[in-house]
């Protein structure tokens, strides 16, 4: 495990330390920071556990062997929400190392707290803009799997430019994947599923595991998420896409 000093992402204010995501200045982001009150446990988890699990955008490329203390297959996930499914995967696949990227402090705090309670050692976290992390921090040809589960669909046409699945993002994912690595996407919104399929089918350097313009069966390694259960209650389907880097 890396022994480098890890600074907390946030600011000191009248409440003490307030966690805030890291990002480089840009005009369009794929997310908004939604209001969400942090519990004392989530807030305290940053101070107690960030040194163990936290990674900073501003520290540049991650030395994976130094950080995890071993050489192992790497899985990267963007938008892990409250972190329950990512933690479950890290526990279920101890032979792999996991890096999660999320911008919402309550979810990051919850994951930090629960990972520490579970004694998980194969998990690290960025609280930062995913596009910045992919550009500056994840080494090229390093990940065996990249996961994007139930991203914000940005329904309104005027907002669809904010959708994270865009050609530049797909290329950034391709850059960090090993040859033969898998980009796994999932959504419970049919229109966004079609958007994902079109973007991935047109992207150079990827092949659809299920066949041209076909969605995949849910793989065993993806746990059911809160968004998936919500979608089922609303009568939504769930669409999985599995694309392999050529």
From TrEMBL:
It comes from Simiduia agarivorans (strain DSM 21679 / JCM 13881 / BCRC 17597 / SA1). Belongs to the class I-like SAM-binding methyltransferase superfamily. TrmB family. It holds the Pfam family Methyltransf_4. This is tRNA (guanine-N(7)-)-methyltransferase. InterPro entries: SAM-dependent_MTases_sf, tRNA_(Gua-N-7)_MeTrfase_Trmb, tRNA_methyltr_TrmB_bact. One of its GO terms (molecular function) is tRNA (guanine(46)-N7)-methyltransferase activity. Pathway: tRNA modification; N(7)-methylguanine-tRNA biosynthesis. Its EC number is 2.1.1.33. PANTHER family: 3-DEOXY-D-MANNO-OCTULOSONIC-ACID TRANSFERASE/TRNA GUANINE-N 7 - -METHYLTRANSFERASE (PTHR23417), PENTACOTRIPEPTIDE-REPEAT REGION OF PRORP DOMAIN-CONTAINING PROTEIN (PTHR23417:SF14). Keywords: Methyltransferase, S-adenosyl-L-methionine, Transferase, tRNA processing. It catalyses: guanosine(46) in tRNA + S-adenosyl-L-methionine = N(7)-methylguanosine(46) in tRNA + S-adenosyl-L-homocysteine. Catalyzes the formation of N(7)-methylguanine at position 46 (m7G46) in tRNA. Substrate binds at residues 156, 188, 225-228. S-adenosyl-L-methionine binds at residues 77, 102, 129, 152.
């Amino acid at each position: 495990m890396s022994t480098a000093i890890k600074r907390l992402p946030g600011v000191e204010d009248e409440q003490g330390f307030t966690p805030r995501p890291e990002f480089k200045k840009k005009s369009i982001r794929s997310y908004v920071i939604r209001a969400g009150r942090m519990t004392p446990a989530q807030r305290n988890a940053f101070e107690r556990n960030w040194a163990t699990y936290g990674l900073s955008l501003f520290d540049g490329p991650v030395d994976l062997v130094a950080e995890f203390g071993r050489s192992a297959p790497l899985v990267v996930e963007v938008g892990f929400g409250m972190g329950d499914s990512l933690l479950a995967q890290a526990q279920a696949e101890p032979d792999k190392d996991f890096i999660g990227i999320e911008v919402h402090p309550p979810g990051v705090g919850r994951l930090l707290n629960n990972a520490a309670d579970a004694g998980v050692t194969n998990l690290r976290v960025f609280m930062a803009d995913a596009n910045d992390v992919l550009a500056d921090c994840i080494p090229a040809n390093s990940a065996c799997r990249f996961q994007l589960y139930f991203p914000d669909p940005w329904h309104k046409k005027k907002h669809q430019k904010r959708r994270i699945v865009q050609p530049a993002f797909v290329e950034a994912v391709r850059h960090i994947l090993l040859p033969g690595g898998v980009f796994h996407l999932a959504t419970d919104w049919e229109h966004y599923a079609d958007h994902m399929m079109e973007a991935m089918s047109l992207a150079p350097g990827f092949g659809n595991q299920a066949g041209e313009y076909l969605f995949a069966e849910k793989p065993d390694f993806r746990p059911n998420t809160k968004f998936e259960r919500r979608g089922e209650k609303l009568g939504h389907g769930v669409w999985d896409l599995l694309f392999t880097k050529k």
